[in-house]
Amino acid sequence: MTNFVRRTVTGAFIVVFVLGGIWLHPVSFFIVGAVMIAGTQYEYYLMAKNDTVRPQAALGMLTGLTLYIISTLVAAGFVPLTALLWIIPLVFIILTAELFRKSEKPFDSLAHTLFSVLYTAVPVSLFPFAAFGRTGIPALLPMAGVEFSPGIVVGFILLLWTNDTGAYIVGSVAGKHRLFERISPKKSWEGFFGGLALAIAVSLLMPRWIGVEGEAGWILIATIIAVAGTIGDLVESMLKRSLGLKDSGTVMPGHGGFLDRFDSVVVSFPLVYLFVTIAG
């Protein structure tokens, strides 16, 4: 099987799982986010682990998933916002556990353990706040008694993939001027503007289909995605280079790992959510 075929088959599965899960039902929406957090955190801890640095993978993943679960319950109105304070004891446990591990570089291990929560779990934990309690396009299978619209997240994912597609096509055909050669030799300015242009073009369809924001709002969201998504990709490339790795994992043939696939999400979505919240 050629790399192109592998990428296509894997890409189709990702589209069905992520977009389908987000749109299908509040429970499948929750599952998609949980898989994203578990997958990205697990890969991060495997990447960071070496002879002297040993992140607390189990406790770190428990903290990340707990944050996501509580965020979902808060967003759905089942528990008060103060329930998020239960993350504090988990952080305390991580700090205390490091005292007994006799790691050669304990603070490096702590830094990697906690940074994974900040890097991947916190951004994805904003997904529920962008869907529960919202009006707009409904889930394909609505849940009785729960106000839920995945419109913001669906639009975000579609524009993110549109930007990636435009950047890949234009960069492959006409990419000559390197964007950040020290970190990512293949990325070009032509690819960046190609992705931005295609994302803005598709964003013009969003007000009629998804709503939530007007035309100007979706254009700004597309711009945020193009800029922040590119930075997210470069940050993950910087991480891999610092660790001497080509891909974050091999779970997605032709696409690498979870972090390779969702590196743009974890940096761009918090900014998109901030804009949507401020814009009302």
Q: What do you see in this structure?
A:
This protein has 11 helices and 2 strands. The chain is globular. The longest helix is centred in the last third of the chain and has 29 residues, at 215-243. Helix content is 70%, strand content 3%. It has one domain. Helix 8 (189-203) runs antiparallel to helix 10. The model has no long low-confidence stretch (mean pLDDT 90). The protein has a two-stranded antiparallel sheet. It is an all-alpha fold and 280 residues long.
Key structural traits:
280 residues; mainly alpha; two-stranded antiparallel ribbon; 11 helices; 2 strands; 70% helix; globular
Ordered list of secondary-structure elements with their pairings:
Blueprint: H1 3-24, H2 26-48, H3 57-75, H4 87-99, H5 106-124, H6 127-131, H7 151-174, E1 178-180, E2 184-188, H8 189-203, H9 206-209, H10 215-243, H11 258-279
Antiparallel strand pairs: 1-2
Helix pairs in contact: 1-2, 2-3, 2-5, 3-4, 3-5, 4-5, 5-11, 7-8, 7-10, 7-11, 8-10, 10-11
TL;DR?
The protein has about 280 residues and is mostly helical. About 70% of the residues lie in helices and about 5% in strands.
Radius of gyration: 19 Å
Summed up, the helix count is 11
Q: What order do the SSEs take from the amino end to the carboxyl end, as H and E?
A: HHHHHHHEEHHHH
**What is the rounded distance between the termini?**
48 Å
Label the overall shape: globular
Secondary structural class: mainly alpha
Average of pLDDT: 90
Count of discrete structural domains: 1
Count of beta strands: 2
Q: Stretches where pLDDT falls below 50 for ≥5 residues?
A: none
For the largest beta-sheet, the strand count, sense and barrel status come to: 2 strands, antiparallel
The helix fraction, in percent, is 55-70%
Strand arrangement within the widest β-sheet reads 1-2
Tell me the fraction of residues in β-strands, as a range: under 5%
